[in-house]
TrEMBL record:
InterPro entries per record: Tscrpt_reg_Rrf2, WH-like_DNA-bd_sf, WH_DNA-bd_sf
Pfam families (alphabetical): Rrf2 (PF02082)
Keyword rRNA processing among UniProt keywords: no
PROSITE patterns: HTH_RRF2_2
Keyword DNA-binding listed: yes
GO cellular component: cytosol
Residue intervals passing through the bilayer: none
Gene3D superfamilies linked: Winged helix-like DNA-binding domain superfamily/Winged helix DNA-binding domain
Name of this chain's protein: Unannotated protein
Organism, scientific name: freshwater metagenome
Amino acid sequence: MRITHKVDYGVRVMTTLAEVASETPGKPTSSHALAERDGLPPGFLDDILRLLRNGGLVRSQRGGEGGWMLTRPAKQITVADVIRAVDGPLASVRGVRPHELADAGEREPFISLWVAVRASLRSVLEHVTIADLATGRLPKRIQNMADKPDSWDARPREL
């Protein structure tokens, strides 16, 4: 899985909005402040915020005290929600969702392989919330996965 700049920035911005909401509840954060705080390119951030708004994860408030806020508590927003809002489905094969591959002419065992890959992604991304990231603590099961020494080992390319 490749994590795009869009996804990385989207998760970081959502985490920042959760942190700000815990410090000053109900107060929106300007896109300028978000860009500065996370070191993000302002123009790219505007595109990401628009995608997050279209995905129902953030809302904007106009005016001198305006800015961006989460639409629901951070503990109800998963990393998977953010990825879907900014990048689309968690897993696709040539632009087709794994469960739709049979209709696209794919055969077994490939269909089950890609469905299993999607399930594996979901097992992490649907269980880590923006609140978890804002507090700096992953759920125990996810942290245990990251704590395994071989999780940190890069695998060499085979030529």
